[in-house]
């Protein structure tokens, strides 16, 4: 397997990978500390480049719009994905975090209990509803026609139109903290929730009660590919978990620090490490082949729905492709 970089862009900022989101034909990412840029996915050409603010707490695509919530200034911005023009912006309370878009409503707030939660009209930023006082929520998730929130042992699905409860669940364990992904959608009707003691729980829109899948030891990231939940272990490697019964069909050990997220590829996965190594795994988690994005300190890998592959590295962001090695003569 051979990795070929198609294009790469210098971000001109220190630290870890920049916040980014993949669009249908573009990439929107934060760079140069205070700029938001849109790049053509095909060749990395700049579509637009606009001032934003520092380190976004959230970037979300909603059709032909980009919603961005920077740390400073205290402002939620809606930008035209095609042109970079500002469609609207609205002041937010200091320390506003969490950003989700459901239908025609933008839901913000609740991070660490600093601010109320509010629902804003996606069309013009007008406020539709606001909770009467600050609330505490883990990272929110647009799911099942609502916005999933929660704290402690409770998960709540909010109606984005008015902030009322669509559903409420009592969980067997307290949810993880405010700065990690707490909800992982498995499908349109079921979610896996991350507990603060390295546990996983499952609940959904049906009549079944929430259930604990198990406790799996410390992990740094979690996600879902093709109906199977993956966990990045704090000590290195990945663990796969069946969300129906909590069993582990496979695990991958690693002697190097791995990066999120593993990507669906062929009939298995791609996983990367911080030193630029990329490994292809089969459906059973076994190593099939590997290669390297040499000279790069990887922070993240990402894949588009049409198979496009991307990497965020120390100081750069780029696109790459993989080809098989020619068989030996």
Distance between the termini: 16 Å
Mean pLDDT level: 93
Number of strands: 32
Structural class: mainly beta
Poorly predicted parts:
none
Helical coverage, percent range: under 10%
Q: How do the strands line up in the largest sheet?
A: 1-32-31-30
Q: Any idea what the shape is? A: globular
| Rg (C-alpha, Å) | 20 Å
SS strand fraction: over 45%
Count of runs of 4 or more consecutive helical residues:
0
Largest sheet: 4 strands, antiparallel
Structural summary, described in words:
The structure is a single chain. By secondary structure, this protein is mostly beta strands. Helices cover 0% and strands 55% of the residues. The protein has no helices and 32 strands. It has strands at residues 2-10, 20-22, 26-31, 35-40, 46-51, 54-62, 65-72, 75-80, 86-91, 99-102, 105-109, 117-121, 127-130, 141-143, 146-151, 154-158, 165-170, 183-187, 190-194, 199-204, 211-215, 219-225, 228-233, 238-241, 251-252, 258-265, 268-273, 277-281, 287-292, 298-303, 309-313, 316-323. A hairpin with a 2-residue loop joins β31 (309-313) and β32 (316-323).
């Amino acid at each position: 397997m051979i990795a070929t970089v198609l294009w790469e862009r210098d971000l001109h900022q220190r630290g870890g990978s920049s916040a980014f989101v993949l669009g249908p034909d573009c990439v929107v990412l934060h760079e140069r500390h205070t700029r938001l840029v849109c790049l053509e996915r095909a060749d990395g050409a700049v579509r637009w480049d606009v001032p934003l603010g520092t380190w976004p707490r959230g970037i979300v695509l909603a059709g032909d719009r980009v919603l961005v919530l920077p740390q400073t200034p205290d402002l939620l911005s809606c930008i035209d994905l095609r042109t970079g023009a500002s469609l609207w912006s609205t002041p937010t309370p200091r320390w506003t975090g969490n950003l989700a878009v459901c239908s025609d409503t933008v839901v913000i707030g609740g991070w660490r209990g600093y601010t109320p939660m509010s629902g804003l009209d996606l069309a013009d930023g007008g406020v539709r509803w606001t909770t009467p006082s600050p609330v505490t929520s883990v990272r929110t998730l647009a799911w099942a026609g609502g916005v999933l929130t929660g704290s402690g042992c409770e998960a709540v699905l909010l109606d984005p139109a008015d902030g009322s409860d669509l559903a409420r669940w009592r969980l067997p364990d307290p949810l993880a903290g405010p700065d990690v992904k707490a909800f992982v959608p498995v499908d349109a009707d079921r979610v896996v929730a991350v507990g603060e003691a390295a546990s996983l729980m499952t609940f959904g829109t049906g009549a079944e009660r929430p259930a604990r899948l198990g406790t799996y030891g410390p992990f740094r990231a979690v996600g879902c590919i093709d109906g199977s939940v993956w966990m990045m272990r704090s000590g290195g490697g990945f663990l796969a978990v069946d969300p129906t019964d909590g069993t582990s069909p496979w695990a991958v050990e690693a002697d190097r620090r791995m990066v999120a997220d593993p990507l669906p590829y062929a009939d298995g996965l791609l996983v990367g490490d911080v030193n630029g190594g990329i490994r292809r795994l089969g459906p059973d988690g076994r190593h099939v082949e590997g290669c390297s994005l040499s000279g790069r300190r990887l922070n993240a890998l990402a894949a588009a729905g049409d198979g496009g592959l991307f990497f965020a590295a120390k100081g750069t962001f780029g696109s790459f492709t993989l080809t098989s090695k020619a068989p030996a003569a």
